[in-house]
Design brief:
Elements (H helix, E strand, L loop, with lengths): L68 H15 L3 H10 L3 H16 L30 H29 L4 H4 L18 H16 L4 H17 L5 H23 L10 H15 L44 H15 L3 H9 L8 H17 L3 H29 L4 H4 L18 H16 L4 H17 L5 H23 L5
């Protein structure tokens, strides 16, 4: 099978509390087997989708009766195929498990890590941007930086969620039992359950995931096509579906993918990496307002920081980004600012192994799955631990990643509205222990992303609330330890992430799932 690709973290040396082992390779695949679901959510088809008006927005016709000759033929063909299964197919069935929400999320994280490589200078000493119209480059498209990553994860997760709500609706409407329940000669490879098989929820996930990720990572279309084919085959050979189940699931997947990608095409992301003239005007406006501006200290200097207009991308659950814009950072002659200079100097002069460990663990820099991916990894662990079914897993990921994306948009709005310099620009002789990002300082992206993610996970997994909120605060202070951010970047950013997340949590509380 062609799915295992290892990418190296720059540094990842901490033990993840009592839940996570120390891993130097990016942990893309959880070592879990199929499990008995903690609940079936038989009313899941009545939950409120995100993009669709309701589950009946996509029409799926009734299946053939289980006594029909066409269905009996499908059963007979399936039994023949199962009898000739080979070892590679057995491994695929084991890999995909009965909750492929987790597997497709891991594949997304894998691709984010692969493409999270900032383009270097070209032969003329300038910079060429990745171009979706010519994804081969050079440089290759995309550069999967944190704004790009959080958006990819949001569209993937939302499309999966709406697709599975639709699938669950028609499952309960048509009540077709799975092949292994229709014919005792068929063994099921996973834990038995009473979830009807038509339409196939796994097929929904396979088609939606392939289409959304292919749009986000166009150079990986062939790889993703192979994964989809393998996944669909495993659904059949597991004994859980017949081809007509698969076909109905694919129909749902095609429809919801088109809706999601239409939104993506019009959400403003294509304009986020603004041209130099626009970037210069944003900087000039900030200087006129506040008397300061962030400057790029790279050599050769990049003409534009990272995605100056990401703050204008359409949000999921916040109507107006300015409504969640934080108050201004302190002026350079203020007591708050002067005290913080001393705080950063003290961290730098008294760097401990513990502070360095925290800074390294949460760095999530180039070649990794970024801070949004880090929190998706946590969510995957919790989903498996809680034995969630695919629908409830997709719900978790949808609200998590909508909140993270909204938080990122809010953060980038603040970054370029205030255009606040980083410590390395203002403190003479100051050095960081990590690379300095190519965008303004206030507020801290790690802090905003992490706080928003922690609040959603605390809502969904209340028993983990103290744990995840503690992680978010550690992620925030890690950027101060690293010398990349001011303390107020982190504290205000944490409050900002929490505020933004509440909008998504309010939507989740009203969707009918609680």
């Amino acid at each position: 099978m062609k799915r295992s690709r290892a990418y190296r973290l720059v540094s990842l040396t901490v033990v993840w509390a009592t839940l996570f082992s120390c891993e130097k390779d990016i942990p893309t695949n959880l070592g879990f087997e199929s499990y008995e679901f903690s609940g079936m959510d038989t009313d899941g088809g009545d939950w409120q989708p995100i993009l669709l008006e309701n589950a009946e927005s996509i029409e799926i016709n009734a299946p053939e009766d289980a006594s029909s000759q066409s269905y009996l033929n499908e059963i007979a063909e399936l039994k023949t195929a199962i009898q000739s299964i080979n070892s590679e197919q057995e491994r695929a069935i084991e890999y995909w498990t009965n909750n492929s929400v987790v597997r497709w999320n891991e594949i997304a994280l894998e691709l984010i890590a692969k493409y999270n490589l900032i383009p270097g200078p070209n032969e003329e000493g300038g910079y060429t941007l990745p171009n979706p119209s010519s994804p081969d480059g050079p440089p290759a498209f995309p550069f999967a930086h944190p704004p790009y990553a959080c958006r990819a994860l949001a569209y993937l997760s939302v499309a999966q969620f709406d697709g599975l709500i639709t699938s669950w609706h028609y499952k309960q409407m048509y009540q077709r039992s799975a092949p292994y329940q229709q014919d005792r000669d068929i063994s099921y490879s996973y834990e038995p359950n009473d979830i009807p098989s038509y339409p196939s929820d796994g097929a929904v996930l396979a088609r939606v995931s392939k289409k959304v990720l292919s749009a986000m990572f166009p150079l990986e279309k062939d790889y993703l096509q192979e994964l989809e084919e393998e996944h669909l085959e495993s659904l059949l050979l597991s004994g859980g579906n017949v081809p007509s189940d698969i076909d109905a699931g694919v129909t749902i997947g095609d429809s919801i993918s088109q809706i999601a990608l239409t939104r993506a095409a019009n959400d403003g992301m294509k304009n986020a990496q603004a041209p130099k003239a626009v970037s210069d005007s944003i900087k000039a406006a900030a200087f006129e307002r506040f008397g300061w501006q962030w400057d790029n200290l790279e050599l050769p200097t990049r003409p534009v920081g990272l995605t100056p207009l990401f703050g204008r991308v359409t949000m999921w659950n916040v109507a107006d980004v300015e409504s969640v814009r934080p108050t201004p950072p302190p002026a350079f002659d203020s007591e708050e600012y002067l005290k913080d200079v001393e705080v950063l100097k003290d961290h730098a002069d008294n760097m401990t192994e513990e502070k360095r460990r925290i800074a390294n663990f949460w760095q999530d820099g180039l070649g990794t799955y970024t801070p949004p991916g880090h929190w998706n990894r946590f969510a995957n662990e919790f989903i498996v631990e809680s034995k969630m079914n695919p629908l409830r897993s997709a719900r978790t990921m949808a609200y998590l990643n909508m909140a993270i994306m909204d938080a990122g948009i809010s953060c980038w709005d603040a970054k370029y509205y205030y255009h606040y310099p980083r410590p390395i620009q203002k403190v003479a002789g100051f050095k960081t222990i990590a690379g300095t990002p190519n965008f303004p300082s206030y507020t801290s992206g790690h802090s905003v992303f992490s706080a928003a993610a922690a609040e959603v996970l605390a809502y969904i997994f209340p028993e983990k609330a103290n744990l995840v909120r503690g992680w978010a605060e550690e992620a925030a202070i890690s950027r101060v330890y690293g010398g990349i951010h001011w303390s107020f970047d982190a504290t205000v950013g944490t409050d900002q992430g929490r505020e933004v997340a509440q909008y998504t949590i309010d939507v989740a509380k009203a969707d009918g799932a609680d």
